[in-house]
What we know:
Layout: H1 9-20, H2 25-32, H3 36-48, E1 52-55, E2 61-64, H4 66-79, H5 83-111, H6 125-150, H7 158-171, H8 176-179, H9 186-201
Antiparallel strand pairs: 1-2
Helix pairs in contact: 1-2, 1-4, 2-3, 5-6, 5-9, 6-7, 7-9
Amino acid sequence: MTTTTASDPRFLVLHALRVKGLASEELVAAICGLPAGDVAAQLAALAEERLIVRREGHLAGSTLTAAGRDAHAELLEGDVADPARRSALAAAYEAFLPVNGEFKRVCTDWQVRSDTGRPNDHTDRAYDDGVVARLGRIHDRITVVLKDLAAVVGRFGAYLGRLENALERVRGGDVTAFARPLADSYHDIWMELHQDLLLSLRKERDAKDEG
């Protein structure tokens, strides 16, 4: 029987920043699935070690330094060393790819109406409801993939709740929750998941990833 092994908190924080590039403390906590206080302590320690730098201004947050990227790469190697974890990641990635292609088509239809070719101004409730229903079916499919993966690589479980929350926001009428960048939208979280799979498998993005 395969068991779930928890990832090291230090690795989780570094990994969240590697996935996102630049992230606030709150977003790092969401990606990691760790308590905010634990994340704050980890970020402070990593900054002291010069593995991250903190930026202020319009796009504030933390990002990895070159040394931080090296430290992350070393810890990632250990996190995915178990053959069972590598096998689960590979299976999840292969299951993700066809769903990813459908998700990209749904995002396009959310932004540009498939019936007129014009930008979607979200005034036609029937059209939007149809696209949201398709997103719901995609969500059901990716939930199965993530539950199977999280049973072995527990850190992927954090995506389940975040995607569910984004979907509920969309269903509640929040049009920004579908695909708006930097809004913790369904699309934002989906892109993080995709990047996480690629990083964890040490794969480069190729034509298959474009759907």
